[in-house]
Amino acid sequence: MSESSARQRLDTPRVSRSIAPRLDVEAVGRFSERIARFLGTGRYLAIQTIVVILWILLNFGAFAWQWDPYPFILLNLAFSTQAAYAAPLILLAQNRQENRDRVALEEDRRRATQTKADTEYLARELAALRLAVGEVATRDYLRRELEEIRDLITDLHPPTGPDEPGKSDAAEKRTKKSG
């Protein structure tokens, strides 16, 4: 549908004309999932371990740069801040995955229901075909019935040949009538 026809429709809301920035919720969710996935990798663990080791070595070895002395309060603050952000990001990623799983489960249920209905329909059709085929006359059945009818007709009217008396009498009667 073109944009001009969408504007003319009364059931289509107008596009918002506000100047406020638009936040794409899906983009935020995708970004948080990428971060949560990265936090769960060995690569992240190796990087964090290297940073912590460097932090401690620089604070012990370079006395001029000791910005965080021994109890490493600034390092603990950094870990606390990281944990404060990591936990909600991981929960957001889990919620999004749960939503995707729920949608997939509903789709699987719908497909299973449809498949069951289709299978039941096909089973009924197959049963109807079996009943119909059971009532259909086969070639052998028709041949046997026709042979029985032929035998009955033969028994009622035996065939008469040219040398048989019944045939010659009938032929004589015909010639007398016509002459």
Mean pLDDT: 81
- Beta-strand percent range: under 5%
How far is the N terminus from the C terminus? 95 Å
**Computed Rg:** 47 Å
Structural class: mainly alpha
What spatial form do the alpha-carbon principal axes imply?
elongated
Uncertain regions spanning at least 5 consecutive residues: none
Question: What is shown here, in short?
Answer:
The protein has helices spanning 3-8, 25-39, 42-61, 73-135, 139-156, 165-178.
What does this protein look like?
It is a single chain. With 179 residues, the protein is mainly α. Helices cover 76% and strands 0% of the residues. It contains six helices and no strands. It is elongated and about 140 Å long. The mean pLDDT is 81.
Write the layout of secondary structure elements.
Layout: H1 3-8, H2 25-39, H3 42-61, H4 73-135, H5 139-156, H6 165-178
Any descriptors?
single chain; 179 residues; mainly alpha; 76% helix; elongated
